[in-house]
Amino acid sequence: MKVKALDTYFLSAPLPQPVRTSTSTISRVSELIVKLTTDSGLVGIGEAHGPFLSQGGPEAMKAVGQILERVTPLVVGQDPFSVERVWQDLFALTYTSVRGIPTLAHQRRQLVTAISAIDIALWDLMGKATGRPVHALLGGALRSRVPAYVTGFYYRDGERPDDLRREAALYLEHGYRTVKVKVAGLSPEADAERVGVIRKAVGDDVAIMLDANQGWDLPSAVRATRLCEPYNIFWLEDPMPWYDERHALRRLKAEVDVPISAGETEFTPFGLRTMVAEGLVDYLIIDSTWAGGLTVWRKAAVMAELYQVPLAAHHDPQIHVHAVAASPTGFILESFADPTRDPLWFELFRERPKIVDGFMAVPDTPGLGLELRQDTLEKYGVRLG
Question: Does pTM surpass 0.90?
Answer without folding.
Answer: yes
